Structures are given as structure tokens and as C-alpha cells.
Amino acid sequence: MAEDDRPLSPHLQVYRPQITSVLSITHRATGVFLSLAAVMLTYWLASAAYGPDSFARAQAALESWFGRLILFGFTFSLFFHMCNGIRHLGWDLGWGFDLVKLRMTGVLVIISAFGLTVLSWVMAYSHVGKL
Amino acid sequence: MSNTPNRNRQLRSKLGRVRGLGSSHEGVHHWWAQRMSAMALLPLSLWFIFSLISLTGSDYVAFQSWVSEFGNSVFLVLFLVSMFHHAQLGLQVVIEDYVHSELWKMGLLLIVKYGSVLFAASGIFAVLKISLAG
User: What is the pLDDT of residue B88?
Assistant: First the structure.
């Protein structure tokens, strides 16, 4: 078989989406997105290391509506990746492979990720008395 | 070899089995490193999110003094190290899975590997600069 013809990763488009496959690809997507969050964290810390002016500029960018939208996306991605990551660690221990548990933990991941995201933002806004 | 049925036939060599190496010849190192960094990131991310919540509305001076606290500096550095390590391991797998041109694959892998070191080093240096100046 020629090297170029070797079968590689599955074509996601040809399968009917199911909770298992959708959560799996979302885990990857949030992981890639969180890499940008890591770069953003470095930018934020570096701006503070440069001094008050550059920190103020970074804060203004992060506080804009677009900045907040991105940060909200980062928050959700982090909690989703974290919750589904715990699900992955369960599989590594050999737990939760049957379809019933698989779907149950999948739903639990979705609910927890949304819940923790909203909770964090409610806590942050009430911390500055804007809620 | 004997004529007995293939009950014990292995395509992998005995040396390969002893070394615990699979078809990729690298064993479980990548898998294990991804899990190790994941487990470290679990408490560190929760600490980080909680810190960000309590830092909401802080000015430069408040932020500076928060970073300068010994525990916060250490946790920030640990967070940066485990996060960029975890990120480059994950991105590596995504690239290897979806980028099929050898040239692009190699190029992207180099960018991810060097980039994660660059950003981790910059983040760590920023933390040190803020805490040691404060």
C-alpha cells in the first residue's frame, strides 16, 4: 500500500452524530481553543511585567465585549475539557465503558460544564457588585 | 517454530514486549505524560479560576501584590508549566491525526513544540519579574 493511501483518522462527516462522538470532538476542539487561552494568559502576565500602562491596555482589551466573549468561551472550554477529562481518567481506570454509563457521564459533563461556567461568571460579577 | 496452533503466536518481538514498546516504538510515555499533566492541571485550574474570580476589578497594584505572594507565584509557574506541557502533547496528537502532508505536519509540530516552550518561558519570566520587583 502506498504511503499516501494508508487509512488515517476517521472522516467525522460520514457518521451520524452521537453524544459519544460529539463530546469526543468537542474535547479536542476545546483543547485546541484552550491552547489559545494559555497564550492569552502569557500575554496577560507579560503585559503586567511590562508595567502599569501595558497592563491597563491588556485589561481594556479583555474587558471589551469581544474580550469578555472570548473569556466566556475560554471558561466554558476549560470546564468542559476538565469535566470530560475526568471522564477520560475514569476510562483509563477501566470505569464507565458501558453505553448506559457512557451516556450518563456524557450528559453529566455537559450539565456540569455549563453550570460551572455560569456559576463562575455570576461569582465574578457579584464580586465587583455588578449583579 | 513448532506446528502447534497459533495460540501463543505474537507478531511483536519478545524484546519489544519486555521494553513495553508498541508499533510506534515509544511505549506509553506520551500517554502517561498527558495523564500526569492532566491530573496536575485539575487542582491548578480550579485554583486559577477561583483566583481570577477574586481578582475581578483589581487594579495593577492589587494584581502585582497578588502575583508576588509566594504561594501564588509558585502555583502560577506550576500552572504555566503543566498547561503548556499538556497543550503541546494534545496539539501534537491533533496534528498527527489530521495533518496528512508530511511537510506541513513536521512544520506545525515544530511550531507547536518550540512555541509552547517560548510562551511557557515568557509566562514564567513575567511571573518572576512581577514578584521579584514587588
Answer: 98
Q: Considering only residues 6 to 65 of chain B, which have any Cβ-Cβ distance to chain A shorter than 8 Å?
A: 35, 38-39, 41-42, 45, 49, 52-54, 56-57, 60, 63-64
Which among B55, B86, B114, B131 is the top mutation candidate for probing chain A, defined by the most A β-carbons within 10 Å of its own β-carbon?
Answer: B86
Packing angle, helices A52-63 and A19-50, rounded to 10: 150
CB nearest to B35's CB, from A8, A56, A92: A92
Domains of chain A with bracketed CATH = 20-127 (1.20.1300.10)
The mean pLDDT value for B17-41 works out to: 86
Contact between A58 and A46 (Cβ < 8 Å): no
Placement of cell 468537542 in the chain: A26
**B100 part of contact set with chain A, CB < 8 Å:** yes
- Out of A4, A9, A48, whose CB is closest to B126? A48
Could you report how far apart the first and last alpha carbons of chain B are, in Å?
Answer: 73
Q: What is the pLDDT of residues B74-126, one digit of tens each?
A: 999 999 999 999 999 999 999 999 998 999 999 999 999 999 999 999 999 99
Specify the fold of B28-133. 3 helical TM bundles of succinate and fumarate reductases (1.20.1300)
Q: Determine the Cα–Cα distance for residues A80 and A17; give it in Å rounded to an integer.
A: 18
Per-residue confidence (pLDDT) for residue B1, from 0 to 100: 46
Cβ within 8 Å, pair A120-B97: no
| pLDDT bracket for residue B5 (50, 70, 90) | low
CA distances (Å), origin B42, targets A37, A82, B116? 16, 7, 20
Q: What is the mean pLDDT of residues B21-48?
A: 90
Domain boundaries, chain B: 28-133
